[in-house]
Design brief:
Elements lengths: L3 H11 L7 E4 L2 H11 L9 E2 L13 H11 L4 E2 L13 E4 L6 E10 L4 E7 L6 H7 L2 H4 L6 H20 L2 E12 L4 E4 L2 E5 L8 H4 L4 H7 L3 E4 L4 E5 L2 H13 L6 E4 L6 H12 L6 E5 L7 H15 L6 E3 L10 H12 L5
Parallel strand pairs: 11-12, 11-13, 13-14
Antiparallel strand pairs: 1-4, 2-3, 5-6, 5-7, 7-8, 7-9, 10-12
Helix pairs in contact: 2-3, 9-12, 10-11
C-alpha cells in the first residue's frame, strides 16, 4: 500500500518533518477552493497524459487555472518512465502550496534485505531527472553529500525525523523526491513522497490500512489484486496460474485488465468480492475464471458467480470459464482464446 496523504500528515503533525501545506481533492471545484485558500503565486514532473497534458505536477496562479488543470488531469491516464501499459486513471489530486527553493535533492530509506536494517540513499541530483541520473551516472547517488557544516546539521536533523517516521510506521520504502534545500536558512523541505508498507504491518497500522484503493481493498478479503491495462478480467487461484492465464490471454492477442488471485482458502464471500472488484472496472468487458479444482471447490465458484450477480446486478460482460458451463471450454488455452474473442465481439 502506498499513500502520500498519510506521509504528509504524519510527517508534519507527529514528527516535525517540513512539508508543504496542502489538501486532497477529487473534483475540479475542490481544487479551485484549495488553490484559493493556499494563495498561489505561479510544471514540475515529466510525463504526458492521454489528452496531451505535459507533466503530472502543474503550477497555477489562480483558482480558475487550478480548476482548468484539474479537468485535464482527473479521469485521464498519465504516462511516465515508471508507467506500464496505458497507465491508471487519476481519480484524485493533491493540491499544495508553492515553495521557493535553491536545489532539488533525492532521499530514500529502504529495507536492506541482506543486512536486515534500513538503508539510506541521498543524491544532490534529485527532482524529475533522478531516473536518468540512476541510469547514466549512478556514482552521483553514492557520493558523500556533506558540503558544509550547515548542510550536515540541517540534513541530519531532517533525516533523523524521517527515520523515526519510517520505523514507527513499519514502512518498507520512504522516497522523498525532491527534497529541496533553502539556501537562506540551510533547511530542507519534503515536496513529494512515496511511502510504502508491507501487509505484515496491518495489525499495528490500522490508520494506514484504512486508506485503500481497489488494489489494497482486495487485501482485506484475502485476495491479491493487481490492475493492468487491458480489457479481460480474470479470477484464478494461485499466483503461478494467474501468470499463466495472463500469458495465455496475451498469446491469443488479448490483454488482461487485472491479475486477481483468490488463493487456496477462498470462500463464497471472498469470491463474490472478487467479482465485485472486477466489475467496478469499466474497462473490463469479459471475465475469464480459471480455477484449479484440486485446491477449492468449483461448485462454490459457481455459487459465488450466482451470488455476485444477485448482489450487484447482472453482469454486463460475458464470463468465460474452463469448468463451469458459461461459454465452457474443456481446455485452458481454448478458454483463453474464447475470452479474447468475446472481449472483442458485440457480446461485450
Amino acid at each position: 500500500m502506498t499513500t502520500v496523504q498519510i506521509f504528509l500528515r504524519a510527517a508534519r503533525n507527529y514528527y516535525g518533518v517540513p512539508v508543504p501545506r496542502g489538501q486532497l481533492a477529487r473534483i475540479p471545484e475542490d481544487v479551485a477552493r484549495i488553490v484559493e485558500e493556499l494563495d498561489p503565486e505561479s510544471g514540475r514532473g515529466k510525463g504526458t497524459f492521454d489528452n496531451g497534458l505535459k507533466g503530472g505536477i502543474q503550477l497555477v496562479d489562480s483558482p480558475s487555472a487550478g480548476k482548468k488543470i484539474a479537468e485535464q488531469i482527473l479521469g485521464h491516464r498519465p504516462k511516465t518512465k515508471q508507467t506500464t501499459g496505458n497507465g491508471l486513471s487519476v481519480d484524485k489530486v493533491y493540491v499544495a502550496e508553492v515553495l521557493m527553493y535553491d536545489e532539488e535533492w533525492y532521499l530514500a530509506i529502504a529495507i536492506d534485505r541482506e543486512n536486515f536494517r534500513p538503508a539510506v540513499i541521498i543524491s544532490k541530483s534529485g527532482g524529475m531527472d533522478i531516473e536518468t541520473v540512476a541510469k547514466q551516472t549512478p556514482d552521483e547517488i553514492a557520493e558523500a553529500m556533506w558540503t558544509s557544516s550547515g548542510h550536515e546539521a540541517s540534513l541530519g536533523e531532517a533525516l533523523n525525523k524521517m527515520h523515526k517516521l519510517f520505523i514507527s510506521k513499519d514502512a518498507t520504502l520512504m522516497k522523498i523526491n525532491p527534497l529541496v534545500r533553502h539556501a537562506d536558512t540551510q533547511s530542507f523541505t519534503c515536496l513529494d513522497a512515496k511511502f510504502s508498507f508491507g501487509d505484515a504491518a496491518k495489525p499495528r497500522q490500522q490508520e494506514l490500512f484504512a486508506i485503500r484503493d481497489r488494489d489494497s481493498e482486495s487485501g482485506i478479503h484475502g485476495l491479491v489484486y493487481i490492475q493492468m491495462d487491458g480489457s479481460i478480467g480474470h479470477v484464478v487461484n494461485g499466483a503461478g496460474l494467474a501468470m499463466a492465464t495472463n500469458d495465455a490471454i496475451a498469446h491469443h492477442g488479448g490483454t488482461s485488465a487485472n491479475l486477481l488471485d483468490a488463493g487456496g482458502q477462498a470462500t463464497t464471500e471472498t469470491m463474490q468480492k472478487a467479482f465485485e472488484i472486477i466489475r467496478k472496472d469499466d474497462r473490463v468487458n469479459c471475465i475469464l475464471v480459471n480455477i484449479y479444482g484440486g485446491i477449492i471447490r468449483c461448485d462454490m465458484i459457481a455459487e459465488s458467480i450466482i451470488g455476485a450477480a444477485k448482489k450487484i446486478g447482472s453482469f454486463r460482460m460475458p464470463l468465460e470459464d474452463a469448468h463451469l458451463g458459461l461459454h465452457t471450454e474443456a481446455e485452458f488455452g481454448e478458454a483463453a482464446k474464447r475470452a479474447v474473442e468475446l472481449a472483442g465481439s458485440d457480446l461485450s
